[in-house]
């Protein structure tokens, strides 16, 4: 059985952010309550997928429970990363749900596990309000978009030094300014 390392109910801080220069960033998911800060390493694709899942879940909840409205504009929250930044683990699986009785989003993150030992991987559970989820979702989308620009020919990320574009027919590097 998986060990539940942390059950933050409710979180007082929740963000999805990145550290480092574009192309070398480390993406982090972070939640805190009154007692502790929990930081997890995630992949850029997980950050994008989680933001999309939060958006979809919020739409579904609004349709299912029209009486439970939330402001269209997310609250002004501090979405920066907090110390300590020591990750508890690298997240392998992320699950998102909604608790209708508490009107809260519930995020479960499970650590990357060794093959055959998935049931033993530690996990965390974060309970967050819908406005906090919406704010973190919008922040995550902005963080992901702030990465390296995409090549207009092949769609691959370009470093400041450029990249070898497969659609360039061997005619050299394609740079950001090209």
Write the layout of secondary structure elements.
Layout: E1 4-8, E2 13-19, E3 26-32, E4 37-42, H1 44-64, E5 89-99, E6 104-111, E7 123-129, H2 130-145, E8 163-164, E9 173-174
Parallel strand pairs: 1-7, 4-5
Antiparallel strand pairs: 2-3, 3-4, 5-6, 6-7, 8-9
Helix pairs in contact: 1-2
Strand content: 25-35%
> Uncertain regions: pLDDT < 50 for 5+ in a row?
none
Question: Could you please say which CATH topology of the largest domain applies here?
Answer: Secreted effector protein pipB2 fold
Provide the residue-averaged pLDDT. 88
Sheet with most strands: 7 strands, mixed
The total strand number stands at 9
Radius of gyration: 19 Å
The CATH architecture name of the largest domain reads 2-Layer Sandwich
Provide the number of structural domains.
Answer: 2
What top-tier CATH class of the largest domain fits best? Answer: Alpha Beta
**Order of neighbouring strands in the sheet with most strands:** 1-7-6-5-4-3-2
Morphology call: globular
Our measurement of the CA-to-CA distance between the termini, rounded to an integer number of angstroms, reads 54 Å
N-to-C order of helices and strands = EEEEHEEEHEE
Structural class determined from secondary elements: alpha+beta
Tell me roughly what share of residues is in helical segments: 10-25%
Helical stretch tally? 2
